[in-house]
Design brief:
Length: about 325
């Protein structure tokens, strides 16, 4: 591990307490058992698809598999890409194809060296259909040298030819007690006093997203104690809460203010357009909307427009305009 990565791991609890083995992953026992059975014969493992909500262990499971199968030099022979950042065919043809085309040769110092490399594609459901079609061909052509672990939130967004070439594991949302217990253990290891009600409030705000929960926990852990008041303040600073503010402004007819805050979230804080819509939906349906059915229709329409490649800034601005009109009715 590089010194830079070590520093980040010590500073960020989400990395510091990331499981290093499959057995340490929270509340996915059936999946862990299935993966264990498959990787007993490393040279015969298939490609994988991990599908499910955010923050439930999909990426961590992929990294644990890479470490176990490839040994201490796993980082050299693993390519981890976030497909939502580079979702076009150029990424597939250049980075994925180039990495997959290189045969991994056995070394004289490692008798257990495996004859393949691993490519982890995170948020693959954000990839364009053209990129997915190109990826399907690479999966076929590089099966002797490469194993793919494809991670997504929505399995339906992956084309059928990719799904048919992989073993699919569906990760489930973590139950409340599991998340609260995990956060409690982190507090104990960090020597921080905590209120169980505050930890429960963290779960309620993240809907079981353990990664997001740990980030809020760390943000709220000032003066070595965590209270409900500190948690509420940290939640108010989270991306989901700020997306909710955008929707509230739009519903109140304050279109320009809503658009400015939206641009701040996407351009300054780097929130993706899809994440904005996801958080906006979660926040909006916790409000008392006059016409929730119409709002759901708007969400579906603009989510589809973004998924087919429409200009994100224009579409989200139009979405806020429609929400403003909805607020006036």
């Amino acid at each position: 591990m590089s010194s830079k990565h070590q520093i980040i791991s010590n500073l960020m609890w989400v990395e510091k307490y990331r499981p290093s083995t499959l057995e340490q992953i929270a509340n996915q026992s059936d999946i862990i058992r299935g993966l264990r059975n498959l990787i007993k014969k490393p040279n015969e493992i298939p490609h994988f698809i991990f599908a499910g909500p955010a923050g439930v262990g999909k990426t961590t499971a992929a990294l644990c598999i890479a470490k176990e199968l490839l040994g201490e030099n796993w980082g050299r022979d693993t390519l981890e890409l976030n497909a939502s950042d580079e979702r076009g065919i150029k990424m597939v043809r250049e980075r994925v194809k180039e990495f997959a085309a290189v045969m991994k040769f056995s070394s004289t110092t490692d008798s257990d060296d495996k004859p393949y490399r691993i490519i982890i594609l995170d948020e693959a459901d954000e990839m364009t259909s053209e990129a997915q079609t190109a990826l399907r061909r690479i999966i076929e052509d590089s099966s002797r040298t490469t194993r793919f672990i494809i991670i997504c939130n929505y399995l339906s967004q992956l084309i059928e030819p990719i799904q048919s070439r992989c073993v699919i594991f569906r990760f489930t949302r973590l139950p409340k007690q599991e998340v609260v217990d995990h956060l409690s253990e982190i507090c104990r290891q960090e020597g921080i006093e905590f209120d169980v009600k505050a930890l429960s409030r963290i779960y309620d705000s993240t809907s079981g997203d353990l990664r997001h929960s740990i980030n809020i926990l760390q943000s709220a852990a000032t003066n070595n104690n965590i209270t409900s008041e500190k948690v509420e303040l940290s939640i108010g600073l989270s991306g989901r809460a700020r997306a909710g503010e955008v929707i509230k402004l739009a519903l109140a007819g304050k279109f320009n203010e809503a658009r400015v805050l939206l641009l701040e979230l996407t351009q300054v804080f780097g929130m993706s357009e899809k994440d904005f819509l996801k958080y906006a939906a979660q926040e909006a349906f916790s409000m008392k909307l006059s016409d929730p059915g119409k709002f759901a229709e708007l969400m579906a329409e603009y989510d589809y427009r973004l998924s087919v490649g429409a200009h994100a800034d224009i579409q989200l601005t139009a979405f806020l305009a429609q929400v403003s009109m909805l607020g006036k009715k």
